[in-house]
Design a protein that fits this description.
Elements: H1 19-50, H2 53-80, H3 83-107, H4 112-140, H5 146-172, H6 178-198, H7 213-226, H8 228-243, H9 246-249, H10 251-258, H11 263-285, H12 293-312, H13 317-345, H14 351-379, H15 381-419
Length: about 425
């Protein structure tokens, strides 16, 4: 990774001096707060309606289905069409889906299938929003500040997932507000978050030879496959999301059945997890030496494996607070490092499609949560976390070995170019 040079600009919030990125950042801050509130609302409503790991995991699976089926086309769209329009459209659909659920809960008409439909809509919305937001970051931010910008983006995600679930837990437990109020407030926030997007420049990505969406998807996959370092970054991100991150999906049931506490504690635990991500995102934002990203991702992934293992034996909700804090910090660090590297390693014309591949892994995480939830019902939540930790250790080992192989391949390729 010696070809990636450190930036010269200093300051933890340096990239916010870029007006376009600042607008994108503020929009994300408000929208992700709404999303963080819905994470708790969706999980607790599913538990209230079904009282099982597998049915709640099915809600996550519906979210994943929306993302898996649409994300490849979202990546193509981010490389082909104005990204501002894609982000705005995503805000509209997120607002409408939250508004619909809120009204249904107010009327007492909420049913489990409604959660499934709303999850598909929201997953499809993120399938367009995610690649467009990250690709637009790569478009408007200077290369030397990309790592800082990605860290600050992750800061909005982590901090709002800390504040959002906590606020939602308090409001859901408040008389005359409840889950209905959480959903309606979330709809209002996503609407507010669309306002800064309207002020963004309406640029169009670099034009390319016209191809069908399927051909462009295949071209993006082939591009990643030919780049050794980029291939390791994308695959390791996918594996980590699939085998380690489902601990977040199991947290509502873990709170209720293992720790024996209610929705307020769920908000506190989810908040501790996201607070760890907030703190570490601030620290990563200070980094200016992008050559350290590769090492940082391996260390943070190792901590994720340890955190999931410790969570499996945590005796109560009080002991779980520091575990989830560290676990959230390590997971955020790993994802921040990988996302920064994917932008630094990829050519701008491929940014949308490369990010869509990472997001497919994120959505697949929701899909595997269902069979993992069924298995957890059979063997127990603690045992499930033990197996997840063991699988994450294997991902760490693979990531180290594959990284060394990528370095050898890159050096051999450079040697052949010199020989010519």
């Amino acid at each position: 990774m010696s070809d990636v040079n450190p930036g010269s600009t200093t300051g933890m919030f340096a990239s916010l001096s870029n007006r376009a990125y600042a607008l994108l950042w503020w929009s994300g801050l408000v929208a992700f707060l709404a999303v963080g509130m819905q994470i708790l609302a969706r999980g607790w409503l599913a538990i209230e309606l079904t009282d099982s790991n597998s049915s709640f995991a099915l809600v996550l699976g519906a979210f994943g289905i929306g993302m898996v089926t649409v994300t490849p086309f979202g990546g193509v769209a981010a490389d082909r069409f104005p990204r501002r329009a894609l982000i705005l459209g995503s805000h509209v659909s997120l607002t409408l889906s939250a508004l619909w659920l809120g009204i249904m809960v107010v009327l007492g008409l909420e049913e489990f299938w409604m959660l499934l439909v709303a999850s598909v809509i929201q997953g499809s919305s993120f399938a367009f929003m995610g690649p467009a937001r990250i690709a637009m970051t790569g478009e408007v931010v200077e290369r030397e500040l990309l790592s800082n910008a990605i860290s600050l983006t992750q800061l909005t995600v982590a901090s709002t997932q800390s504040v959002g679930p906590f606020v939602a837990g308090v409001l859901a437990d408040t008389p005359n507000f409840g889950l209905a109020g959480v959903y309606l407030l979330s709809a209002g926030l996503t609407t507010v978050g669309a306002i800064p997007v309207l002020m963004l420049p309406s640029s169009r990505p670099q034009q390319r030879e016209a191809r069908s969406p399927v051909e462009e998807i295949a071209e993006g996959v082939g591009y990643v496959a030919r780049n050794p370092y980029l291939r390791v970054v994308v695959i390791s991100t996918a594996l980590m999301l699939l085998v380690a991150m489902p601990y977040q999906a199991f947290l509502p049931k873990y709170t209720e059945s293992v720790f024996g506490v209610g929705v307020l504690w769920l908000g506190v635990l989810q908040g501790a997890n996201a607070l760890g991500g907030t703190v570490t995102a601030l620290q990563v934002a200070r980094m200016r030496d992008n050559t350290q990203l590769w090492r940082l991702r391996v260390i943070s992934l190792t901590v994720v494996a340890a955190g999931v293992a410790v969570l499996a034996i945590t005796p109560n909700q009080w002991a779980a607070l520091p575990v989830l804090f560290v676990l959230g910090g390590a997971a955020t660090t790993f994802q921040t490092a990988n996302m920064s590297m994917s932008l630094l390693l990829a050519e701008p014309v491929y940014h949308g499609r490369v990010q869509s591949l990472v997001m497919i892994a994120f959505s697949a995480q929701s899909l595997v949560a269902f069979p993992m939830g069924v298995l957890a019902d059979q063997i127990g939540l603690r045992e499930m976390h033990g197996y997840m930790a063991a699988a994450t250790v294997l991902v760490v080992v693979w990531s180290v070995l594959a990284g060394r192989q990528a370095r050898r391949q890159t050096q051999a390729s450079a040697g052949r170019r010199v020989a010519r």
